[in-house]
Amino acid sequence: MRPEDWIAPAPPGGGGGLLVAPGGYHIDPSRPVDRAVITHGHADHARAGHGHVLATPETIAIMRSRYGDGAARHFQALPCGEPLTIGETRLTLHPAGHILGSAMAVVEHRGCRVAVSGDYKRRRDPTCAPFEPVRCDVFVTEATFGLPVFRHPDDAAEIGKLLASLRLFPERTHLVGVYALGKCQRLIRLLREAGHDRPIWLHGALQALCDLYEAHGIALGPLRPVAEAPDRDTLRGEIVLAPPSAAGDRWLRRLPDPRIAMASGWMRVRARARQRNAELPLVISDHADWDELLQTIAEMGAPEVWITHGREEALMHAATAAGHRARALALVGRGDEDEEPDLSAPGATDSADA
């Protein structure tokens, strides 16, 4: 039996994501289904309203925090590394290195092993477990930054740019646009590792997930809500984190002479930085860059590579040149919620950042 005979994109109207027929479940379905395996907590992978959800304990906590009682009727926690038989399949979750609780779903059926990565990165991240390569027959990989132009710089160097700007402009508030889940907490930890021990000020939309990370043992140091600043001048010379959209709305008026930074892999593209009005673009991503995508494909050792949600054509060509059988998957609704849209669309803007 070929892998595509038992694991494949769900048919139209069938819930989306990948349908694992012999197990009776979907992986990261885009619409509510009876049984879902969720790789991580970002909203394009973790939708609300499923009947039964299986995920890591951390991803379940994120879903409950974001969706409340509507997240799912029933949850089953599966820690990474513990195999579970579901129907005619054997499922094991392995760390994906993307955000807290992110996992690669490794499914085995009749001697064939398929690794569904979800989203992943290969850089060290003090807020989550590192990606764990698994030898397999089919590797399903994202391609968010699947073009050779995307080679992310060193994270510490990008944090150094932010701290240098803070020293150069001590009278200005430094507003950094960060996605609420994963990027925010990672940036805080990188700042702490660089020696920034002052309180970091938060937009109210970021507080709940920072609290969740703290509850899971990720120490973030002193954090303060912007709403509790005694006056505007209190925020001069301070770092404020907010969702990227805050840089373009009335909330920005709370900050004295803000210098806007954006932390995203898309900041490699100057047009993206201009669209975000970023004086200080910081290329810090929670996805693998071009070289890391190729490295991961090689380490997984899969004869077949299935590519989804990103720059599929370039990565297909590179994987084929390296001796793999490669093809693109059309997964409806996929595309990380912190990704860019089609840059060719007039007036296209991010929904957040990557």
Automatic annotation (TrEMBL):
Pfam families: Lactamase_B (PF00753). Signal peptide: none annotated. The keyword Chaperone does not apply. InterPro entries: MBL (IPR050698), Metallo-B-lactamas (IPR001279), RibonucZ/Hydroxyglut_hydro (IPR036866), Xnuc_lig_assoc (IPR026360). One of its GO terms (molecular function) is ligase activity. SUPFAM superfamilies: Metallo-hydrolase/oxidoreductase. Its EC number is 3.1.-.-. Residues 31-156 form the Metallo-beta-lactamase domain. Keywords: Exonuclease, Hydrolase, Ligase, Nuclease. Residues 335-354 are annotated as: Disordered. NCBIfam families: Xnuc_lig_assoc. This is Ligase-associated DNA damage response exonuclease.
